[in-house]
Amino acid sequence: MNIKPIEGFSKLSKQDKIQWLVTTYLNDKEDLKKILEQYWNENIGLQKLHEEFSENTLSNFYMPYGIAPNFLIDGKLLAIPMAVEESSVVAAAAKSAKFWLNRGGFRTTILNTKKLGHTHFIFKGESAKLQHFFNFKLKKKMLETTENITKNMRKRGGGILDIEWLDKTSEMEHYYQLQVSFDTVDSMGANFINSCLEQLGKTLKEEIFSSEDFTVEEKESLEIIMNILSNYTPECRVRAEVSCPLWDLAENENISAEEFAKKFKQAVTIAEIEPYRATTHNKGIMNGVDAVVIATGNDFRATEACAHAFASRNGRYSSLTHCSTENNIFRFWIDIPLSVGVVGGLTNLHPLVKFSLELLGKPNAQELMSILAVSGLAQNFAAIRSLITTGIQKGHMKMHLLNILNQFQASEKEKKYFVEYFKDKTVSHHEVIGRLNDLRKKQ
Fold first, then answer.
1. Which of 299, 350, 367, 398 is catalytic?
2. Is 241 a catalytic residue?
3. Cβ atoms of residues 311 and 318 within 8 Å
4. Residues 17, 118, 281, 396: which is the catalytic one?
5. Sign of CA dihedral 50, 53, 59, 60
6. How would you list the strands of the sheet with 159-167, edge to edge?
7. Cβ(116)–Cβ(391) under 8 Å?
8. Contact call for residues 383 and 252 (beta carbons, < 8 A)
9. How many CB atoms lie within 10 A of CB 174?
10. For the chain, how many helices (H) and strands (E)?
11. Is residue 218 flagged as an active site residue?
């Protein structure tokens, strides 16, 4: 296929973009073109709104929007919205919520809300001189030059918390940082933080160049590399936990409460010491977290990056959750950094995001942090509970059954048959297909 680059693609109309794509890459197949068109929203205004969220938009990519009810969080009973395509995530969260509903529910603590950003720069002059200049002249000036940017945020109780000068020359020659901590209150704050940092970088350069404390050579050696927020916010952290007497763990799982607690703690300990297990363990946690992050219009990529960096903070990748069984009390908790917002971005634009936040009682950013942490903890509890009792596949594959049947265009009658057949059996892809073929041969 001899395909030529296209100029001005972004300036084409949506229909022209689709036609070019179908003609160039898809052999003018009308059925493939219709796939894009069938996912357009019939509400023209809503479709236009969606298209303006991103660039070169041709269609919409829908994900299931589900609800996990019965979450008792800090005394409030909530139904949690989850946007996720993976089978069993919503069901597992709901099952955990129901389990803990009559055992005290979930409790949360906001440990901190500090967010970070950096001005990264090169300076080939004397380090001690630069530090002295920062401490006695530059820091005050920097706070002054950002006052216009931080004014509204300060009115809401946030703003710049501190500016630190960091010498990084042991890691990279002539490399320094300004590390700036922020409180962005109810917004995620990326644009606010980056605007402040760009002004700080500008002030750094202007003040050094206008100062008589530095030589011409030192001034010319200054190079601002970049001004950018960090998605690693280890101090913007929340704890969610559950606890109950050991004997309250007893259920119809063919396992005693004591044995359940022992095996559960062993499973968590394995995730704490074994990175191969920790990776899958934490992925399951993020199934719960990300589903709510997406449903509330926040950035799941930033959330993922931060959580996994935090899981590696001690030099080895480890579990985000922990467990103890002391004095006959079972306790299970998560400490997780979460930088999210409830104002700005999609929160004011996407109708389903607005719905999600209304459903959750219009939480502030700290309350949303708590809900997200609880969702991750609930997901992890459900996964470990399955692993140490019935095994992970029994529940997961039962939820996956309809996906398999839909893949082979099963009728409603066939679906009903298989749901009944696998009511007390573990679903396997091989058996579903074999039995479906047998059924169709008989028909």
1. 299
2. no
3. yes
4. 396
5. negative
6. 159-167, 175-183, 115-122, 223-229
7. no
8. no
9. 15
10. 17, 10
11. no
Catalytic site includes residue 400: no
Over residues 66-119, the pLDDT tens digits come to 999 999 999 999 999 999 999 899 999 999 999 999 999 999 999 999 999 999
Number of residues assigned to the chain: 443
Average pLDDT value over all residues in the chain: 93
Instruction: Name the active-site residue from 33, 74, 76, 86.
Output: 86
Give me the residues paired with residue 239 across strands.
Answer: 109, 335
Q: Which residue has the tokens 């398999």?
A: 404
Question: Sheet harboring 107-110: ordered strands across?
Answer: 107-110, 237-245, 329-337, 321-326
Which residue of the set 283, 354, 394, 400 is catalytic? 283
Q: How far, in Å, CA of 118 to CA of 194, rounded?
A: 9
CA dihedral 148, 150, 198, 211 (to 10 degrees): 60
Please report which helix (H) or strand (E) contains residue 331, including its range: strand 329-337
**Tokens at residue 372, please?**
């997200």
pLDDT of 216 strictly over 80: yes
Q: Which two tokens stand for residue 369?
A: 């942090």
Q: DSSP assignment, residue 391?
A: -
Name residue 242's beta-bridge partners: 332
C-alpha closest to that of 375 among 80, 84, 136: 80
Q: Which residues contact 87 (CB under 8 A, 6 or more apart)?
A: 396, 399, 400, 403
Residue 27: both structure tokens together: 């052999």
Assessment of whether the complete model's pTM goes beyond 0.70? yes
Mean pLDDT in residue range 233-242: 98
Mean per-residue pLDDT, 32-51: 93
The whole-angstrom separation of Cα 380 and Cα 197 is 37
196 — pLDDT class (breaks 50, 70, 90): very high
Q: What is the pLDDT of residue 399?
A: 59
283 tagged catalytic: yes
Amino acid identity of 366?
A: Q
**Contacts with 386 (C-beta within 8 Å, 6 or more apart), sequence order:** 92, 392, 394, 395, 396
pLDDT, tens digit (0-9, with 9 covering 90-100), for 239-252: 999 999 999 998 76
CA separation for the pair 435, 403 (Å, rounded):
16
Task: Measure the CA–CA gap between 30 and 84, rounded to whole angstroms.
Answer: 30
129 Cβ neighbours under 8 A, 6+ residues apart: 213, 214, 218
The one-letter amino acid code at 340 reads V
Which residues touch 264 (CB under 8 Å, ≥6 apart)? 323, 330, 332, 384, 385, 388
Residue 319's CB is within 10 A of a number of other CB atoms, namely 24
